[in-house]
Structure formats: C-alpha cells, structure tokens
User: What shape does this take?
Amino acid sequence: MPRDTTVFIDLAAIGDNIATLKGSLDACQFMAVVKADAYGHGAVAVAQYVEPMVDAFAVAFTEEAIELRTAGIRKPILILEGPHSPDDLVTAEEQDLWPALHSQYQIDWCVAHRSALPHVWIKIDTGMHRLGLDPQQLAAIAQSLVDKGCQKLTLMSHLASAEFPDSALTSQQLSLWRDALAEWPHEVSLCNSAGSRLGLARDDNWARVGYAMYGGLIKDMADNASLKPAMRFETAVLAVRQVKTGESVGYGGQWTAQRDSVIATLPVGYGDGYPWLAPNGTPVNINGVVAPLVGRVSMDMLTVDVTDCGTVAVGTRAVLWGDDPAIDAVAEVCGTIGYELMTRITGRAPRCYEK
Ligand SMILES: *Cc1c(COP(=O)(O)O)cnc(C)c1O
Assistant: This one.
C-alpha cells in the first residue's frame, strides 16, 4: 500500500487561470513562465497542456529549455538568465530559444556568434539591481545587435515591487522604463504576474506570467477569487491519539496540550517539502475543517490538533494546501512566500495530474 501523500496538479485550473489573466491583458501576448519545473508543478506536463493557450514560454536557463524541447514543445522559449557560455548561443540557435541578454559579456558573445540570432531580448536594470544593462547604454547595445543582423529585439526589465504599484520604488522604475521606451522602436515587456494583474502590462507586447498562472495570489487583492490554485498537497491521517492536558507533542516538546486533546499524525513532513519552520497554529484542512498544526514538523510526519474536527480516523483526508488553506496563507504564517512552498516540493510525494 503506498503512502497517501500526493501532490495533485489541476491542469484545467491552470488553463482557466490563463484565460482569466488574458482577459485583462488586451493585446499583450502571454508568456507562460515555467522555470523551476513550472514552480513545482512539472514543467513538461504544464507546458504540454498550456502550449495551445500561450504565445511563448520562459525558463531561467538553457537546460530547462532543452527539457521542454526534448518533450516536443515547439513554441518560443525565452531564457531569462541568458547564455551562461557562448555554447548556450549555439544551443539557442539550434533549438530556437530567445536569450535575454543582461550583461555586456553576453552582448559580446552574441556579436561574436557565428550567425545572427533572429530574436534576442535585452534586459535593462531600472532599479531591481540584480540583472540588467545600464539604460544609458541601450541605444549603443541595440545598434551593435542590429549591425550584427539580429532582426528582432525585445526590451525587458523587471519590477522589484510590482505588487505595490504606488510605491516609490515602482514609480522610480516606471519612470526609468518610460524614458527607455521613448527612444525604443521595438517590442517591450515589463511585467510579471503582479504587474500584469495590476494593469501595468497593458501597453506591453509581452506579459511574463508565472505565479498567477498556478493560482498564486497577491495579498489582499480584490479579484483573488478569480484565480484557482493548481496545486493541492494532500494526504490521509496515519494515526490518532489522545493527549492529556500538560503533555507535549513532537520533537523538543515545543507544544503542550492546554486541554485534553486529540492529535492526528499525517505522513508528510519537510522531506516532502512541507516547511520545517511551520509554527503551531499553521492551518491544515482535516476533512473540510481547518485545524492547527501543533508541534515541530518532522522529516516524514507532522501533527495536527483535531480536537474540534469531529470524527477523525486513520484514513481521514487532510489537505496541507489547496483551496483552503491557500498556499499563500500557509506561507504567510511560516514567514515565507507561496513561490517557495511550490518550488520546494521535493518530488518524494508523487505528482498526480487532473484535467
Ligand atoms: C520568474 C520571473 C517572472 C515571473 O514572475 P511571477 O511573479 O511568477 O509571475 C517574470 N520575469 C522574470 C524576469 C522572472 O525572473
């Protein structure tokens, strides 16, 4: 008998989310970001399912793109980190990949490459200060690529605080971005999920959407309900016991029962990607009722106070995240973000696809 712990992936939810997100993008094309194994959802399965609905894909580096090409994905793939070596440009040419060039050394490789890549992206730094070329140099860089024979150029940048469109940081970035656009005759792309959902991508040619496609939310945003979580991390109760007032549960005895309690043990732990940092009170859905995690998360197990959950027995279904609790709610009490929880799913629990 296999353990019940499973990561269910609802591909139809991803499809619905794409349709919803496209609704607010006007003519802007949809680039599905499937880096990090599609944020833990399985890059090949997700890309195969969504390929007819999207205009292109994005991954972080070349190996991730090769995985998709090997699986038969034909739409363009943007390499967000660009080439890591001149060889990556050979691969880009052979596999029809779009490199995003963020540093002068990559421009130099591109200019020295045996042929002109037909479509390259140029990334400028408007204030994230992680990757990107100096906007002041943009005109000269673009000219060197045009002289080389590159026919299509897309300008990109990345917002550091897109979920706060009115913040000083975003305003500053938008202002630098608009200055760059004033002199730029080609395609442009600024926004990730948050920027797209907040309407900043409307005038762009491409929206680069990852998190929202998987149903990840922006805190307190009004239309969060229009997105559906694609990942449901589910298991079933492995054991049930009574503990008396004053008895503790788990490693270090760091939770003590304040009343006689019923404790359910679930066969899932940090070895599966559930966060070790989850504090007492982290929500877990037991048979439809949200109950508090109690005690330290172990490698293979965690414990939940099910005293108020009615009848709980071995085999009762438990959801770590999905509809309720949402992954963002679990992440918040754990002091992390839903992105991390999605991508740290370890692969130990099988993935099961639903359409
Ligand atoms: C990962 C990434 C995205 C997608 O971000 P989401 O918030 O998941 O939509 C977009 N652009 C760049 C440059 C990225 O690295």
User: Anything to note?
Assistant: The first strand starts at residue 6 and ends at 10. The chain is about 30% helix and 20% strand. The pocket of pyridoxal-5'-phosphate is lined by residues 33, 35, 80, 158, 192-194, 208-212 (CB under 6 Å).
